[in-house]
Amino acid sequence: xxxxxxxxxxxxxxxxxxxxxxxxxxxxxxxxxxxxxxxxxxxxxxxxxxxxxxxxxxxxxxxxxxxxxxxxxxxxxxxxxxxxxxxxxxxx
Length: 92
Prior knowledge:
The chain is α+β, with helices and mostly antiparallel strands. Helix content is about 10%, strand content about 25%.
């Protein structure tokens, strides 16, 4: 069974005042994992339910400031999503 995870990204403001890049050249949501604030709003049974949640959230404080920065991911319940190990690289 697949479920839909609904995310919202609040993009960090650029210190130099330059415009924020909300989407990349292909239209995909641009995310800087170091500085942007990513929130998972909920888990839904289907895309229509996730879309309805987006419609509700767009009128709420914070979300309405970046109304096109929602992302829906599909995940399979009971399936490992992280199948490789990982390493932590210390900052230099």
